[in-house]
Amino acid sequence: MAQKGCGWEHKFRGCGYRVTIPRQAVLDKLSCSSKHLCAEDIYISIHKKYPGVGLTTVYRTLDLLINMGLVHRFDFGDGKTRYELTEGKNKEHHHHLVCTECGRIVDYNDFVDEELEFLKRAETNLSKKHKFNIKSHQIHFYGLCNSCSKGK
What gap in Å lies between CA 123 and CA 37, rounded to an integer? Predict the structure, then answer.
């Protein structure tokens, strides 16, 4: 199971929780996927192996994982809330490119110096302007992927 390498058991205990089978199953599914999964995707996948785990349990587990800081929640405008782990393999800070035609979501993390400088300057200016201590940010760019652009 994936918890050993990621230290999830320690994080759960530190927050006063146990690593239950449903929690482990949700974490395993998220850690094995390169996609941005919705709760229904997770439920369908883990329900095969754990038929006692219901959709409500998946939603409650995701809410707990978000509150613990282990999972990010995203709304890409397609009517589905999607989730991904905050840490682990290939989970460094990234932004998203979302195709409004086919729904493809691209993780964007190969920042060039100018982009990093722009983001840092924007965070600094927004913090000063609004007297707000920014801890994190999420940026989603919406448009057409290459395949959909060619079809238009």
Answer: 29
